[in-house]
Amino acid sequence: MKKNIHMLLWGIVLLIFGGTFLIGSLMGKNVSFFFDGWWTVFLIVPAIASMVQNRVDIGNTIILLLGVILLARAQGWIPAISWTLVIAIALVALGIYFVIRALADGRSSRSHSWTQDAESNPSHTAVLSSRRIKSSPVRLSGATCTAALGGIIVDLSDCRVEEDITVFCNAILGSVQVIAPKNVKVAYRNLPILGNVSGKTTGNSLENNIPTVTFDCTAVLGAVTVS
């Protein structure tokens, strides 16, 4: 459950949005699908998912607070605020965060560069952070890799693939790099929105019975790379 928290939250949000619109339409009422500040959902939901799935850090905290403030301002719950001040505070906090992370990573990069994972269907998320995950030699049944305002590298090269599977890659103002499993065919379903998707091809394989790994890639002002 915990590793799929971001999908659960998005499912709840979509049910609320779609359910409200559907009920209003059935009752003959003109219900607007959008509300003032609706776009802040794309800040609040990933931040909460990152807090639950990984840990609370300055990155997802800033995103959550910014989303809540923007939603409250759009709804008129708080008076007018100085966006210059908000942006300045966010930039200073991010600057401090990146400096601390750079110094910490510089000291421990040799021994803590990769996080080990033994899930057969892993789900990894990086929000305002960078992560590198190395999967153990397990039987892979699928995976989800998401980066929002951050970067993530997932190494699946040691995994065993015994049937056709799908790996979802979502880059939102960030980058996702996946090292594909060995001895598989590679296929793509791409949705680049002002973003880029690039990766390896299957090559000249003579085996027709090897499994296919389909990379379902969404890049919104971001990049997905499969190697």
Q: How is the largest sheet built, in terms of strand order?
A: 1-3-5-7-11-9
Distance between the termini: 29 Å
Overall form: globular
Secondary-structure content class = alpha/beta
Descriptive report:
The chain has 227 residues and is an alpha/beta fold. It contains four helices and eleven strands, in the order ααααβββββββββββ. Strands 1-3-5-7-11-9 form a six-stranded parallel sheet, with no helix packed on it. The longest helix has 26 residues. About 2% of the residues have low confidence.
Main traits of this protein?
alpha/beta, six-stranded parallel β-sheet, five-stranded parallel β-sheet, 4 helices
In short:
The protein has 227 residues and is α/β, with parallel strands linked by helices. The chain has four helices and eleven strands.
